[in-house]
Design brief:
Chains A, B: This is Transcriptional regulator, DeoR family. Chains A, B: Pfam families: DeoRC, HTH_DeoR. Chains A, B: InterPro entries: Carb_Metab_HTH_regulators, DeoR-like_C, DeoR_HTH, NagB/RpiA_transferase-like, Tscrpt_reg_HTH_DeoR_CS, WH-like_DNA-bd_sf, WH_DNA-bd_sf. The structure is a homodimer of 249-residue chains. With 249 residues, chain A is an alpha/beta fold. Chain A is built from ten helices and 15 strands. Chain A folds into two domains: 60 residues, Winged helix-like DNA-binding domain superfamily/Winged helix DNA-binding domain (Arc Repressor Mutant, subunit A), CATH 1.10.10; 175 residues, 3-Layer(aba) Sandwich (Rossmann fold). A seven-stranded parallel beta sheet of chain A has the order 6-5-4-9-12-14-15, sandwiched between helices. A three-stranded antiparallel beta sheet of chain A has the order 1-3-2. In chain A, strands 10-11-13 form a three-stranded antiparallel beta sheet. At the A-B interface, helix 1, strand 1, helix 4, helix 7 and strand 6 of A face helix 4, helix 7, strand 6, strand 7 and helix 8 of B. Strand 7 of chain A pairs antiparallel with strand 6 of chain B. The structure holds a DNA duplex (30 and 30 nucleotides).
DNA sequence: TCTTATTTTGCGTCTTTTTGCTAGTTTTTA
DNA sequence: TAAAAACTAGCAAAAAGACGCAAAATAAGA
């Protein structure tokens, strides 16, 4: 049997069943396991499949980068996410909210970081899946079309059953007086549940949102333990927040 | 024997069997291996076939595998999804499994169709969000990196609390004798729960998977109410399934 | 037909590729 | 934590390929 032919067979099997065992293929094609191992390694090198311990899996599943390079103030959000990374240590259990700032945090997680991440955001979950050492747990529930996050009673109930070290959340509006507020009532309910399930809550917000408010209240400002903006912590724009017991980064 | 004539023979052999061994051809035509090697090299130069170590393979064989889109057998899967659409009526409550065939079903849902869709697959959920009249409910749980679906005890528990009209599921392997089987134990557990929560279960599978099996069993074949392949329902490949109480589409 | 130029073919030698095996290490699993 | 499975690396045998060369076949012109 030709090498090329064998590799085609391997590829087809992987595409067909999504995953294969090297031993199965070796037996089926009646060649040594080493040969299959070399074939798979080569196909992996050509990005035709992904080699894993003991077998191979199809790329169809793993390669999907929902690159949206149309994010407002991406630079600032990236800065914020970078600062947030400093809070993370191996073994931490965290919750990551939806929104582009939190998505940026997910994107910038170092590949070697060992985490357990809860999220109710589909894009965040997708992004986290690319991090080999991150365990991703999706909080289910009805999914909002606009925010692409699970909301509603079910999501809130699921959140009530978990406890995390840190919650990283975004907000629609934030004000040193009025706290965190939102345009949407359902979102507020979920965010309340998120804050409740966290030992410490970290707010990620670009400075543009400071001193703004809206209809529905998520929480008082001192429900937040750490607030991260793209500004230097000493920036005078942050002065109104210094009266409260908040760590500024 | 003329050189032209010999090269024609080589070409037709390649077309016929998709591949040839240089040694076989040399012996059959009673010329030295060097001659065949030169012929094949020349034909490769003319893009009539592809030369590989030890032989040659037809171009069709390779272009077939050079997937321009990375979904294997997308055409067939699309056909299957089209057929599945016929089962759906406004107001239905369904579950959609992970996998590329089910993803294709989600993709092809008409925008005007009014549905409630449960899913444990992140890509399917994302796709369903683009359908204005579909209510999407994500079944949460730990998310598998390979399949990008929620699995594990939590997902199974969540599934135990819902009841849907139809479950559309895929499978790794299906056989009329051995039923539906999978490579992965965790996936089997989830699929069992999916079948349990559905009044009727619809299996979507390309015909290439028929008569294949693997280690872990999801269910007997008669746990499936409807099986949809890309084949015509009267196709003889489906005969083994006619003995069971399955509707074929 | 004969001679000559050109192409094609087969052979020998040497290099490269492929493959299976062994030994030692790492990863997974129970 | 120990056994089992999988991985890595290196080696050697066998198969395949490259290349030069000379013989054979073919073509062409006198």
């Amino acid at each position: 049997m030709l090498k090329e032919e064998r590799q085609q067979t391997i590829l087809s099997e992987v595409e067909l069943h999504n995953r294969i065992l090297l031993t199965d293929i070796a037996e089926a094609l009646d060649v040594s396991i080493d040969t299959i191992r070399r074939d798979v390694k080569e196909l992996d090198g050509d990005h035709k499949l992904r080699k894993v311990h003991g077998g191979a899996i199809s790329l169809g599943f793993t390669t999907n980068s929902t690159r949206n390079n149309n994010i407002y103030r991406l630079e600032d959000k990236s800065t914020i996410a970078q600062k947030a990374l400093a809070l993370l240590k191996d073994g931490a259990v965290i919750f990551v909210d939806g929104g582009t700032t939190c998505l940026e945090l997910a994107r910038l997680l170092p590949t070697e970081l060992d985490l357990t991440c809860f999220t109710h955001s589909l894009p965040v979950a997708m992004e986290l899946l690319t991090k080999p050492n991150v365990t991703v747990i999706m909080v289910g529930g009805q999914v909002s079309k606009e925010s692409q996050t699970a909301i509603g009673a079910n999501a809130i109930h699921n959140l009530s059953e978990i406890k995390v070290d840190y919650s990283f959340i975004g907000t629609g509006y934030v004000d040193s007086q009025y706290g965190l507020t939102e345009f949407d009532w359902d979102i507020v309910q979920v965010k309340k549940a998120v804050i409740k399930c966290a030992k410490k809550t970290v707010l990620l917000s670009i400075s543009e949102k400071l001193n703004s408010q809206h209809r529905y209240k998520t929480c008082e400002i001192n429900a937040i333990n750490t607030m991260i903006t793209e500004l230097h912590p000493e920036n005078k724009l942050l002065n109104p927040f210094r009266e409260h017991d908040i760590r500024l980064l």
